[in-house]
């Protein structure tokens, strides 16, 4: 007999077994509240040169356009908070890029979860998404009760923080749906105050074209001189608005071996970064997300920081 509650419980148990921090489920439908927000953000050019953000507007808001007959969005969180961080006196990279590229790590877990659903429940069609298609990850995770969208526009979770990846499995199976949680940012403005480029233009709105992560990863041209001296030594990505968030004092180290950093990374001094060769780059960042910026991009970022 078709039992939505039992199936939902089975899926959540398997997600936990696969190492996910948490799992929430919401109904696959049009994201009504997000539509005007996304439109305004795009109209204000806050996506900078990230042209892909303006593509597939309808698909971003309606998962049924991505998966035929979609009924449920299963949202999953995977912790990446490291046991040990880089030295404070060096060029920094975002903690999410310490280990192997999360796309591959999570995709294989999602495949396992989908296989499990098919074995246990029957022929269930679906698609896995890891930050690689027009899916509003944070909106779906918030809708399924995994946290709330904070003033820095990241998903925040009580007792956990925000150092985790978000992924989805969109399936044509009806399940029990979770409900959103309340916002617990209160009057705190730590993230807004800490951003050196003033990218958080108002609470809950981040101008992507002013974000250090955008400049060091997405921007293909030269970094504008007006941001000179404002990068706080971030060479790839930026964690500042997360580092200062009070909820992240609850972050606990991940247990995913593939996210452990290359041993050389944590000991690199500024001199090591400045003198890095392409061979060293390939060795240290062999399977890392840092490869996105390529050796030339990382070199450009470090040269900008050195000025």
From TrEMBL:
<dbReference type="GO" id="GO:0031419">
    <property type="term" value="F:cobalamin binding"/>
</dbReference>
<feature type="binding site">
    <location>
        <position position="166"/>
    </location>
    <ligand>
        <name>cob(II)alamin</name>
    </ligand>
</feature>
<dbReference type="Pfam" id="PF08331">
    <property type="entry name" value="QueG_DUF1730"/>
</dbReference>
<keyword id="KW-0408">Iron</keyword>
<dbReference type="GO" id="GO:0046872">
    <property type="term" value="F:metal ion binding"/>
</dbReference>
<feature type="binding site">
    <location>
        <position position="60"/>
    </location>
    <ligand>
        <name>cob(II)alamin</name>
    </ligand>
</feature>
<feature type="binding site">
    <location>
        <position position="191"/>
    </location>
    <ligand>
        <name>[4Fe-4S] cluster 1</name>
    </ligand>
</feature>
<feature type="binding site">
    <location>
        <position position="195"/>
    </location>
    <ligand>
        <name>[4Fe-4S] cluster 2</name>
    </ligand>
</feature>
<comment type="function">
    <text>Catalyzes the conversion of epoxyqueuosine (oQ) to queuosine (Q), which is a hypermodified base found in the wobble positions of tRNA(Asp), tRNA(Asn), tRNA(His) and tRNA(Tyr).</text>
</comment>
<feature type="binding site">
    <location>
        <position position="155"/>
    </location>
    <ligand>
        <name>cob(II)alamin</name>
    </ligand>
</feature>
<dbReference type="GO" id="GO:0052693">
    <property type="term" value="F:epoxyqueuosine reductase activity"/>
</dbReference>
<comment type="subunit">
    <text>Monomer.</text>
</comment>
<keyword id="KW-0479">Metal-binding</keyword>
<dbReference type="InterPro" id="IPR017896">
    <property type="entry name" value="4Fe4S_Fe-S-bd"/>
</dbReference>
<keyword id="KW-0846">Cobalamin</keyword>
<feature type="binding site">
    <location>
        <position position="213"/>
    </location>
    <ligand>
        <name>cob(II)alamin</name>
    </ligand>
</feature>
<dbReference type="InterPro" id="IPR017900">
    <property type="entry name" value="4Fe4S_Fe_S_CS"/>
</dbReference>
<dbReference type="GO" id="GO:0051539">
    <property type="term" value="F:4 iron, 4 sulfur cluster binding"/>
</dbReference>
<feature type="binding site">
    <location>
        <position position="131"/>
    </location>
    <ligand>
        <name>cob(II)alamin</name>
    </ligand>
</feature>
<dbReference type="Pfam" id="PF13484">
    <property type="entry name" value="Fer4_16"/>
</dbReference>
<comment type="pathway">
    <text>tRNA modification; tRNA-queuosine biosynthesis.</text>
</comment>
<keyword id="KW-0963">Cytoplasm</keyword>
<protein>
    <recommendedName>
        <fullName>Epoxyqueuosine reductase</fullName>
        <ecNumber>1.17.99.6</ecNumber>
    </recommendedName>
</protein>
<dbReference type="GO" id="GO:0005737">
    <property type="term" value="C:cytoplasm"/>
</dbReference>
<feature type="binding site">
    <location>
        <position position="238"/>
    </location>
    <ligand>
        <name>[4Fe-4S] cluster 2</name>
    </ligand>
</feature>
<comment type="similarity">
    <text>Belongs to the QueG family.</text>
</comment>
<feature type="binding site">
    <location>
        <position position="241"/>
    </location>
    <ligand>
        <name>[4Fe-4S] cluster 2</name>
    </ligand>
</feature>
<keyword id="KW-0560">Oxidoreductase</keyword>
<feature type="binding site">
    <location>
        <begin position="238"/>
        <end position="239"/>
    </location>
    <ligand>
        <name>cob(II)alamin</name>
    </ligand>
</feature>
<feature type="binding site">
    <location>
        <position position="211"/>
    </location>
    <ligand>
        <name>[4Fe-4S] cluster 2</name>
    </ligand>
</feature>
<dbReference type="InterPro" id="IPR004453">
    <property type="entry name" value="QueG"/>
</dbReference>
<feature type="active site" description="Proton donor">
    <location>
        <position position="131"/>
    </location>
</feature>
<dbReference type="GO" id="GO:0008616">
    <property type="term" value="P:tRNA queuosine(34) biosynthetic process"/>
</dbReference>
<feature type="binding site">
    <location>
        <position position="185"/>
    </location>
    <ligand>
        <name>[4Fe-4S] cluster 1</name>
    </ligand>
</feature>
<feature type="binding site">
    <location>
        <position position="152"/>
    </location>
    <ligand>
        <name>cob(II)alamin</name>
    </ligand>
</feature>
<keyword id="KW-0170">Cobalt</keyword>
<keyword id="KW-0411">Iron-sulfur</keyword>
<feature type="domain" description="4Fe-4S ferredoxin-type">
    <location>
        <begin position="173"/>
        <end position="205"/>
    </location>
</feature>
<feature type="binding site">
    <location>
        <position position="245"/>
    </location>
    <ligand>
        <name>[4Fe-4S] cluster 1</name>
    </ligand>
</feature>
<keyword id="KW-0819">tRNA processing</keyword>
<feature type="binding site">
    <location>
        <position position="188"/>
    </location>
    <ligand>
        <name>[4Fe-4S] cluster 1</name>
    </ligand>
</feature>
<feature type="binding site">
    <location>
        <position position="220"/>
    </location>
    <ligand>
        <name>tRNA</name>
    </ligand>
</feature>
């Amino acid at each position: 007999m078709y039992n939505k509650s039992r199936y939902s419980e089975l899926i959540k148990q398997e997600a936990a077994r696969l190492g996910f921090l948490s799992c929430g489920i919401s109904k696959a439908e049009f994201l009504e509240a997000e539509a005007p927000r996304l439109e305004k953000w795009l109209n204000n050019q806050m996506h900078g040169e990230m042209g892909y953000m303006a593509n597939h507007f309808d698909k971003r808001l309606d998962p049924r356009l991505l998966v035929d007959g979609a009924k449920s969005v299963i949202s999953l969180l995977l912790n990446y908070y490291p046991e040990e961080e880089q030295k404070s006196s060096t060029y920094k990279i975002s903690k999410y890029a310490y280990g192997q590229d999360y796309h591959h790590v999570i995709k294989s877990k999602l495949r396992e979860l989908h296989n499990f659903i098919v074995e246990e429940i029957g022929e269930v069609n679906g698609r896995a998404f890891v930050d690689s298609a027009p899916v509003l990850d944070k909106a779906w995770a918030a809708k399924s009760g995994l946290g709330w969208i904070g003033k820095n526009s990241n998903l925040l979770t009580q007792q956990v923080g925000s150092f985790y990846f978000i992924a989805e499995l969109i399936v044509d199976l009806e399940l029990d749906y979770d409900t959103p949680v309340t916002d617990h940012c209160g009057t705190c403005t730590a993230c807004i105050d800490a951003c050196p480029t003033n990218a958080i233009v108002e609470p809950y709105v981040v101008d992507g074209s002013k974000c250090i992560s955008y400049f060091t990863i997405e921007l293909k041209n030269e970094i504008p001189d007006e941001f000179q001296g404002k990068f706080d030594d971030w060479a790839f990505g930026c964690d500042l608005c997360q580092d200062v968030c009070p909820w992240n004092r609850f972050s606990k180290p991940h247990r995913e071996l593939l996210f452990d950093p290359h041993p050389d990374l944590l000991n690199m001094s500024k001199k090591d970064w400045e003198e890095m060769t392409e061979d060293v780059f390939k060795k240290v960042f062999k399977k890392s997300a840092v490869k996105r910026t390529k050796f030339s991009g990382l070199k450009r970022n470090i040269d900008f920081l050195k000025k």
